[in-house]
């Protein structure tokens, strides 16, 4: 009888300990979740590796691999994607995933030198949750650094919005720029129809330095905006509407930043010698 009483008492103590510890474990879990939300309210900036990303951090994407960034909050309406390399070519696929088997925006990006001309574009992400998927389709010898942020996103200037011109389906338009222009803004938009376009940065005849093949299911709800780096001289931006004639679009291409020192040297003549006999 005494042995049975001791067994029941022991079981009661054990069950009391279990009951006492369970709420504490649940409370600590809730506290951790609230602390995480307080640190980044409504924003889940995690790559496919599961490591939290800082606003200025990049993830190395090896050739042939895929990384994803998920944003669970519907308050995130646009994100900026920045891709670069250490000087090697850049070849990547960028997709926006919204729900199962739904890809409202995707683009193929090629850059001859990812250090001299890093890729930077803004992807519209209304009505979350959304996921940005970046796949490095280059060889394993060509890794790239990818960064996706939702704060301090670039936006088109008033000049870029006011100078948009219509490009009919199947047509193209070229925009040459002065050597003093260091970067260019490109804004593409439709009246609500699908957007299919190819953006090329050329430096010389048939010399593609950067190519972007773009698809957006709704060019009004999800317009495309990017900034192209244009170092050197002879830069021409060519925008091609690859959609049928029933799907026109508007394009605005204007300078983003200008090298004032180069402009000053051009006015003074710099160190350029014409004719080969100047100063003799």
Automatic annotation (TrEMBL):
Signal peptide per UniProt: 1-16
Tree of life domain: Eukaryota
Pfam families: DiatomPyrShell (PF25192)
Record key words, sorted: Signal
InterPro entries tied to this protein: DiatomPyrShell (IPR057491)
Protein's recorded name: Uncharacterized protein
Organism: Emiliania huxleyi (strain CCMP1516)
């Amino acid at each position: 009888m005494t042995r049975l009483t001791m067994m029941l008492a022991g079981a009661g103590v054990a069950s009391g300990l279990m009951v006492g510890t369970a709420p504490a474990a649940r409370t600590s879990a809730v506290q951790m979740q609230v602390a995480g939300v307080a640190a980044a309210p409504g924003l889940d900036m995690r790559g496919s590796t599961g490591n939290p990303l800082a606003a200025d951090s990049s993830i190395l994407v090896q050739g042939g691999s895929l990384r994803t960034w998920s944003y669970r909050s519907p308050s995130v309406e646009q994100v900026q994607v920045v891709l670069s390399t250490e000087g090697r070519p850049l070849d990547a696929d960028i997709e926006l995933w919204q729900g199962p088997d739904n890809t409202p925006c995707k683009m193929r990006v090629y850059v001859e030198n990812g250090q001299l001309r890093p890729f930077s574009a803004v992807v519209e992400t209304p009505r979350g949750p959304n996921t940005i998927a970046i796949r490095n389709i280059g060889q394993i010898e060509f890794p790239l650094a990818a960064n996706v942020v939702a704060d301090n996103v670039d936006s088109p200037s008033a000049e870029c919005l006011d100078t948009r011109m219509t490009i009919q389906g199947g047509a193209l338009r070229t925009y040459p720029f002065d050597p003093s222009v260091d970067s260019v803004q490109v804004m593409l938009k439709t009246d609500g129809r699908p957007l299919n376009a190819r953006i090329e940065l050329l430096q010389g005849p048939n010399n593609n330095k950067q190519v972007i093949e773009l698809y957006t299911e709704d060019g009004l709800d999800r317009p495309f905006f990017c900034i192209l780096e244009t170092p050197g001289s002879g830069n021409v931006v060519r925008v091609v509407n690859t959609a049928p004639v029933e799907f026109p679009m508007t394009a605005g291409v204007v300078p983003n930043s200008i090298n004032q020192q180069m402009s000053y040297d051009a006015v003074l003549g710099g160190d350029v010698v014409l004719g080969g006999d100047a100063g003799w």
